[in-house]
Hints:
The complex is a heterodimer. Chain A is built from eight helices and ten strands. Chain A is α/β, with parallel strands linked by helices. Chain A has two domains: 4-23 and 67-148, no CATH class; 151-281, no CATH class. In chain A, strands 4-2-5-10 form a four-stranded mixed sheet. Chain A has a four-stranded mixed sheet with strand order 6-9-7-8. Chain A has a two-stranded parallel ribbon with strand order 1-3. In chain A, helix 2 (28-40) packs antiparallel against helix 3. The longest helix of chain B has 12 residues, at 33-44. Chain B is α/β, with parallel strands linked by helices. Chain B has a five-stranded mixed barrel with strand order 2-3-4-5-7. The mean pLDDT of chain B is 97.
Amino acid sequence: MKVREIAAQELSSAVEKLFKECNYYIGDDIMDELTACRENEDSQLAKDVLTQIIDNDKIAADEQIPMCQDTGMAVLFVEYGDRVVVDGEGFDAAVESGVRNAYVSGYLRKSVVNDPVFDRVNTKDNTPAVIHTTIVPGDKIRITAGGKGFGSENMSAVKMLTPSAGVEGVKQFVLDTVRYAGPNPCPPIVVGVGIGGTFEKAAQLAKKATFRSIKTRHEDARYAQLEEELLGEINKMNIGPAGLGGKTTALGVNIETYPTHIAGMPVAVNICCHACRHKSVEI
Amino acid sequence: MKRINFPITDEQLLSLSCGERVLASGYLYTARDAAHKRMYELLQNGEKLPIDIKGQAIYYVGAAPAKPGYVIGPCGPTSSYRMDKYAPSLLDLGLKVMIGKGARGQDVIDSMIKNQAVYLIAVGGAAALIAKSIKKVDLICYEDLGTEAIYRYEVEDMPLITAIDSKGRNIYVR
């Protein structure tokens, strides 16, 4: 079997580019929805808040500066082809180099501390990243990466529902989580929902869901309908842009699912602010 | 739109009502989680704060680094509720204006009414736009905290919204 070598330098440069670009350039899916929602708002304050956000995102792109000061903790979903060898410093080290270079040379904020409870000393280069790797057949590496801000991360939740809770239980937990978050996660938000697997799998799926375009729907029509229904319900809450009231509380709801245990139905809700930043690359 | 100045006068402060939008100019201090924790611990130990906050405004922010040619990097508000534990002690010392985003706890609101203070918000995530209203940045103390250090900003026409006024009327309660 032929093995493909990828230079660590090539990988690290690709990662650096992903993090700079996702922080400077908001996705078209988000920009289109912000613009459409502004038209749809009745309240002048809601319209004005959305205008500030749209103007902000244009300034960031034009001037190549981050759209938000919280440029996030670096999160990567990697599909690693089983016929790839990363030459040189190795895969994880090359990714960390890319993150370091992006945050240092891209004027991104360094927001990571070395220890969660006791030391809390800034690592000064935003490493380490959180890397989720899956081994897939092939000779390529596909990476989807994003900077996850913590205003919204802090409003996320996991609940171990049991099978009898059914779809109504899922709905209630998602809606309760969004209602509780209120104005804090910088609405309008993107809601990532992970259902199934185990405790940690559900959380990972929820994060993965926020890294999907809000213009895509779940491939199973029942979940696609649930995404639409939840979005409709959330936008009736009158939380609104910046939490000041209005019809635009969420821009999208994305669900990811996985088989689960006969006794369980884990559900995770990962909330992302309107600066829902992610970019992908294939190497 | 109403224009206000920092440090704010009592007259201007009392005139602000919930939901009112303002353009703020003048000087404010920045402080977020780590700086608040340090100031709170000083007060717990009966020590003096490194800044005189009487009559001042504090903006909850940790800016991104400035690109060459820029005064400051993007600098939008951070979530204010994380400062709720520390805010009443600062309000008791005469802090008049808090600027951040999101809801506040009842203890903070009670202390604001008692001490006649206001809570203003900026739009979360409008960081590149807000940076245009910052004209000068001086490091004041806690340099080791990096983005979380205490800075003084000179601001001009910074777009803000009165979220909780001095009578405790709250924009988030609808």
